[in-house]
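Consider the tokenized backbone below.
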């Protein structure tokens, strides 16, 4: 009798063990199959975004396939990349169609666009989910995201309404501005959702530099180069034109010798962030003065929360 009870107990334990092993063996492949067949969209929190670029986006594809981009890599219309005029290569942006809310995360690998006041050119695969292929261009908001953010289709920003409400100049063709904190954005969105249309206070604009020369602020890191001239008189004329547009800007003429040729650069700065420099550049561009954002040599790269790694240093 004792032997029979022991045998029954042992058999019961073995049965339970075999059942558990079978259950686990069946569950794990199912989970793996679900993981392989259902690709999740990139989910990023609103607190990751500090800098917002708003304007028109276009696209490019087959005709540029395999061509060398400004970063040196070859263009692939099936990769989530984009072209921007000044953002450092490798910067990741979440680009959202302002009307539909569709969003993708892309990486800057090229320079452009340089016409029609557009702020970004998307590779074909990135433009398709935003509906830009059929329209040719669309209104978007682009937000700088951490370098670890996955490329590809992304979730619609939960604070999209607050992002649009924070635009300091919504009637302009394009704008670059800093997004308020996540808590402030949530309050703005809640107020807009509950109340009737009302005036929303714009965030404090980026402070422009004042003072005589660039050397007055050794802690600054960025500037805007408005031109390089072989004729010093043309450089002086450009400086006078910029000061006529905005007397508060600190404009300097810097003489250099490059490969035996004397050149004069027109420099605006110094500015303490890429956002401040980009804001100045876009204001001047809107008034017909083209420029490039540059990072001063020997300066540390930007932290993720401040924006992204800085643009190329001045040679």
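A designed sequence for it:
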């Amino acid at each position: 009798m004792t032997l029979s009870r022991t045998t029954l107990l042992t058999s019961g334990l073995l049965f339970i063990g075999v059942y558990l092993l079978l259950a686990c063996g069946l569950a794990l492949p199912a989970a793996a199959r679900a993981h392989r067949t259902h690709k999740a969209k990139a989910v990023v929190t609103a607190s990751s975004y500090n800098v917002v670029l708003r304007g028109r986006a276009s696209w490019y594809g087959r005709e540029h396939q395999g061509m060398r981009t400004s970063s040196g890599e070859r263009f692939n219309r099936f990769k989530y990349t984009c072209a921007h005029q000044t953002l450092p290569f490798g910067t990741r942006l979440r680009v959202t169609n302002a009307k539909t809310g569709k969003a993708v995360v892309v990486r800057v690998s090229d320079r452009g666009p340089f016409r029609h006041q557009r702020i970004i050119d998307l590779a074909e695969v990135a433009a398709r989910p935003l509906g830009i292929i059929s329209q040719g261009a669309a209104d978007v908001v682009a937000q700088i995201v951490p370098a670890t953010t996955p490329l590809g289709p992304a979730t619609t920003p939960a604070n999209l309404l607050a992002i649009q409400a924070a635009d300091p100049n919504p009637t302009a063709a394009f704008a670059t501005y800093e997004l308020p904190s996540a808590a402030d954005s949530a309050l703005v969105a809640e107020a807009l959702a509950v109340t009737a249309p009302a005036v929303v206070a714009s965030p404090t604009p980026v402070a422009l530099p004042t003072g005589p020369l660039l050397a007055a602020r050794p802690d600054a890191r960025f500037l805007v180069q408005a031109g390089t001239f072989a004729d010093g008189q043309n450089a002086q004329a450009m400086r006078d034109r910029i000061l006529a547009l905005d007397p508060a800007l600190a404009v300097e003429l810097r003489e250099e010798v490059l490969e035996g040729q004397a050149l004069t650069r027109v420099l605006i700065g110094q500015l303490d962030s890429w956002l401040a420099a980009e804001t100045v550049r876009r204001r001047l561009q809107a008034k017909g003065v083209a420029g490039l954002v540059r990072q001063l040599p020997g300066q540390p790269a930007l932290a993720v929360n401040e924006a992204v790694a800085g643009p190329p240093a001045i040679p």
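The first helix runs from residue 2 to 37.
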